[in-house]
Amino acid sequence: MKTEDKIPLAYFITFRTYATWLHGDERSSVSRTRNKVGTPKIHPNKNLETQMQALQKDECVILSREHGDVIREATVNLCNKNNWRLYAMHIRSNHVHLTIKADDEPEKMMTKIKSNATFALRKKCGFAVDQKIWSRHGSTKYIWTPESLYYTSDYTTECQGQKMAYYFNL
Questions:
Q1: Of 8, 13, 79, 88, which sits with the fewest C-beta atoms within 10 Å of its C-beta?
Q2: Which fold does the domain 10-19+59-168 belong to in CATH?
Q3: pLDDT score of 98 more than 70
Q4: Would you state the pLDDT for residue 6?
Q5: What is the pTM of this model?
Q6: What's the rounded mean pLDDT across residues 79-83?
Q7: Which of 60, 62, 67, 20 is closest to 165 using CA atoms?
Q8: Sequence ranges of the chain with CATH classification 3.30.70.1290
Q9: Looking at the predicted structure, is the pLDDT value of residue 2 above 50?
């Protein structure tokens, strides 16, 4: 049986806040055309980073602890409503990590989570209706083994520096 035919144990989903990791910056990045395993990343390039900054429609978004609490509450409620099993979540100043199990495709879950969090942030924290909060898409990795689920959940909550808003229920 091919890997694509198997159902993963869970997913590790990551998405970033708007304009906090631009193509060309020192960390390198992936794009729509450079996002497959083995595909070279976009290397640091100050000119490219400057071009990306010029294309920004809004300021970059940095999340506070209050924002994180709102995102966590909205996400836990969404998971309960959709019967998704949330194992771990950590909302950082510029990104969100989740370890989650569901029958839905991870890309669809990520879109729903970002949309729901956006609605909650606008309602409770005063984000403008036209302000971009999240970068486009994110990362969706498949978790195949109980060991990987444990380590990914541990990484999500314990290996991200000082804790901000988080959830853990393994």
A1: 8
A2: Alpha-Beta Plaits (3.30.70)
A3: yes
A4: 84
A5: 0.84
A6: 98
A7: 67
A8: 10-19+59-168
A9: no
